Amino acid sequence: MRILVMGGTWFLGKAIVEEALRRGWDVTAFNRGRSDAVDGVETVQGDRTSPDDLKRLATYGPWDAVIDTSSSEFPPRDVLLAAETLRLAASRWVHVSTVSVYQGWPHHPLTEDSPLLECPPDDDGAFGHTGSDGSPTKYGFQKAGGEAAVRAAFGEDAIFLRPGVILGPGEYVGRLPWWLARAERGGSVLVPAPAEQMIQPVDLRDVAAFAVDQAASDLSGRAFNVAHPEGISWGEFMGSCLDVTQSAGRPVWADAATLVEHGVKQWTELPLWRTHAGVWSVDATRAVGAGLRCRPFVETIADTWAWMQSGGRPVEHPRWAEHGLAPEKEARVLSAIGDA
Which runs of consecutive H residues, i.e. helices, occur in the chain? Predict the structure, then answer.
């Protein structure tokens, strides 16, 4: 197999490259050169918004498949430019999208048959809006437009992967690293109740393996929800964070109404917490049937802590600063609910 990875030097893109190399594949990575390339990869530097750079990239083909991990930063028209330019150089396109493309996310349970948001494939980034309650999102519209762009260029030779939250060593958003750092600090740790609530983050290495599988499969024209089919409860999640950090901290459980009353921001101040009914009700049955295998999430927690302890540093990203509850605000909430 010979594949092109759009991205390929950090987090999911890097994990995909490493997985493909483990299988003995020939890998080309196209990126802007802002982070170190993986050894053993043919690296082509350029800007995916540049027609000339994309035409130059196409001369390095042909490839059995393109795996695109880097489209989230670009409007649909740039996705369309890349897909159309590379169409004659690649047999299929595996597109990493998001569950945000669904009209019902995060309010309703989702399957791949759930209706999608609509956005023109040649949109310049202006289309869409974010609802008053945070859903739908302009990001979701734009990602739906990105899917439409790939579909316009590759038709049935396109496969769409729609993950929710991807975590693991190298995470650049800062969700799991924040929880681990907070656990290590100890004391009373504010945690969203109920403890038995299940969440479905997925390990980047499992997503990478599935993406590589799809690049080599004989399936076409398919979309897959990529979420942990079993998930992990908040109780087990927090317990694992405390265990791996060898912390003496203890969880203090607060229900959603209490957290909202005290102005705790969902999804960011307490990462992974959101009250919408469908946010962690993503059906991954089709992906499991096509080969998705997810390790127990406690392994992801332990491996991420080991990465942090070894001096691992993520690629700098502005979203990191959005995540985490300030100690003084946490202390105010804990005091208000009777845990001074």
Answer: 11-22, 51-58, 76-86, 138-154, 175-185, 204-216, 234-244, 256-261, 285-289, 297-309, 327-336
